Amino acid sequence: MAVFTSEFSWSSCNPAKDISRIAIAGGSITELLYLLGEEERIIAADRTSNYPKEALELPSVGYVRNISAEGILSLKPTLVLGEHDMGPAEVIKQIENVSVEVIRVNEVHTASGIVDKLRCVASILGVNDKADFLLENRIGNLINQLDVVRSRSEFRSRVALVLNFSDGAPIIAGKNTSGNGVIEMAGAKNVFHSIDGWKPVSRETLVGASPDHIIITERALRAIGGLSGMKQDIALTLTPAVQHGRVHAVDGMALLGFGIRTLDAALKLSSFFD
């Protein structure tokens, strides 16, 4: 029997009825099936499933929050397995109405939450032994290193995480977001912890927050013209992060998908935060 942390809702982690043909909605779930060596069961995946590269060759079922019932059902899945925000609700209901099992996997934005997600997916597939092996031989070391990071001095770096830009306004990670979870895993302090959720803020607000470091998705950095574009932005150049070249670009799914790659990304980022 898999063991989960108290934060994790594991009511949906019971073994599935039939795992022979799985359609996935959520890049982290796809990543975990490949990690567990169960990728031959995948018949389709959503557009956020971009890792490993072999997943890009799978038939697409749309975007995780806007999957296509017609596209999924035409592939005759025995199980639709998705992240917690899989949707829309009416599509999920349509799929369930034709007796296809649908399972959503809970997400908690902590290192232990990622471990629990792995254990949950393994439990659904009936391969708990594979999860135990991965935790003992690969992932456990990452968790231990991140535990050390989080136990460091209270004098933590002040960090802002920029997801993208909307009409020129940076969209930042506040509390209760995957972005905030990554910042805390990396042993830093979110300068926008007082804001709830993902929110657009003015450039002046970002300057006023005075982040020592800015984490930015590669997509957002491209949108602003790269690091040189940030340095040419009159407002952003006033932040300590840009002034001292402490801007860190990371693949969005690796950073925020809360699969195993998020542990790697958080550990790498922690090396910049002293």
Describe the SSE topology.
Blueprint: E1 22-25, H1 27-35, E2 42-45, E3 62-63, E4 66-67, H2 69-73, E5 79-83, H3 89-96, E6 101-105, H4 111-125, H5 128-150, E7 158-166, E8 169-173, H6 178-185, E9 189-190, E10 198-200, H7 203-209, E11 213-217, H8 218-223, H9 226-232, H10 240-243, E12 247-250, H11 252-256, H12 260-270
Parallel strand pairs: 1-2, 1-5, 5-6, 7-9, 7-11, 11-12
Antiparallel strand pairs: 3-4, 7-8, 8-10
Helix pairs in contact: 4-5, 5-12
Short descriptors:
single chain, 2 domains, 12 strands, 274 residues, six-stranded mixed beta sheet, Rossmann fold
Report on the architecture of this protein.
- The protein has 274 residues and is α/β, with parallel strands linked by helices.
- The chain has 2 domains: 125 residues, Nitrogenase molybdenum iron protein domain (Rossmann fold), CATH 3.40.50; 113 residues, Rossmann fold (3-Layer(aba) Sandwich), CATH 3.40.50.
- Helices cover 39% and strands 18% of the residues.
- The strands form 3 sheets. Strands 7, 8, 9, 10, 11 and 12 form a 6-stranded mixed sheet that branches. It has a 4-stranded parallel sheet with strand order 2-1-5-6, sandwiched between helices. A two-stranded antiparallel sheet has the order 3-4.
- The longest helix has 23 residues.
- The radius of gyration is 19 Å and the shape is globular.
- It starts with 21 loop residues before the first strand and ends with a helix.
- The N terminus is likely disordered.
